[in-house]
Amino acid sequence: MLDFAIFAVTFLLILVGAVLYLCPASRQASGIPGLAPTDEKDGNLPDIIADSSLHEFLVNLHEKYGPLVSFWFGRRLVVSLGSIDILKQHINPNRLLDPFETMLKSLLRYQSSLNGDTGESHMRRKLYENGVTKSLQSNFALIQKLSEELLAKWLSLPEAQHVPLCQHMLGFAMKSVTQTAMGSSFEDDREVIRFRRHHDAIWSEIGKGFLDGSLDKNMTRKKLYEDALMEMESTLRKVTKERRGRSFNRHVFIDTLLQGSLSDQQILEDTMIFSLAGCIITANLCTWAVYFLTTSEDVQQNLYKEMDRVLGKGPITHEKIDQLRYCRQVLCETVRTAKLTPIAAQLQELEGRVDQHTIPKETLVLYALGVMLQDSSSWPSPYKFDPERFNEESATKNLSLLGFSGSQECPELRFAYMVATVLLSVLVRKLYLHPVKGQVMETKYELVTSPKEEAWITVSKRS
Q: In this structure, which of 23, 201, 334, 394 has its CB flanked by the most CB atoms within 10 Å?
């Protein structure tokens, strides 16, 4: 079982940038099938850009060369694993690292723990995970309240009116994450709107600008990005100062960090990472889950029946979450079908092996999760949205191996699963969710997979 955080490495350039900074360039060939460099300086970067995204590039590469492939990023060899069987064979004697922290901190210009003390990094990561767990427990009623508010908004709409699903889910996620992470100051919608503006400015540049270097070439965009980052940091410092040494009715994520032995800078960094990643992961999990429910009346009805049987007329409680097994299957199948995060990776710090192939030291190894999640050898009818597949233990084990479930599940995804479960328990028991006829859903593959355009649905009240 591999030890990697699933959301860590979906953005290639950030990790590669850290690798290139920390390690000398390598031009060593591996004998693994794949592409020769298209450009002496950029390697296969022009091919990635031509395919629109790294995920789509890897889909084409694995289709042509098989489950184990190689290509070049600049002068650095990159190996990609494209099947679960190959993933199981990967021998990588790395020390324990958190690639997500490495990547995101590199992007945010924070000091990475890549060369730091392993014990200290482990303790810091445990504090982070405990912060997510405690904030979910303390803010369960808040998440339910926000779900009820969204339900009331949808119930007030005329039945034929189109609902902008992406917009509403992002707003819901922003409120859930900011209030759970930083407390009651974000009950003010003006604070949430300000946070969203800065969040959007930062994440839009993760999806574009870094891969092709256009951010550094556009001073206007770069200033917007840096200003947004500075404003968010200022907000987090203010919240840290307000909550330090004080007692509040609700325990939030930043309170756990304050109870540890972290510096102010470390508290800022970890709260920034949770706030940024938590919002985008939660928003897109909720968006795709609701969208897929509109495409399958049977799945929606089965979910309603489970909610009615387990919860009756009462509200969802933390204790009953584990009883909603079909709901968990729906969310797991949402992650799989949407390819919620299409790529993960690790740095091969020491020489490793896959099957008969040697992976040289300092090679970047990609896990082409988007390819694996729709591999017919692992998932029968892979393009069908079918939560029933997770009745099989083999499917659950595969998802866990890929990091979307079980012990491999990262804190941000665990948070998103909980929030999405509460939201669905509120919406599905009161509403029918309908697709908009003629809508063609195209997908945008970035750090987290999202609809390329707004996803529209309609709703009607259950009798």
A: 334
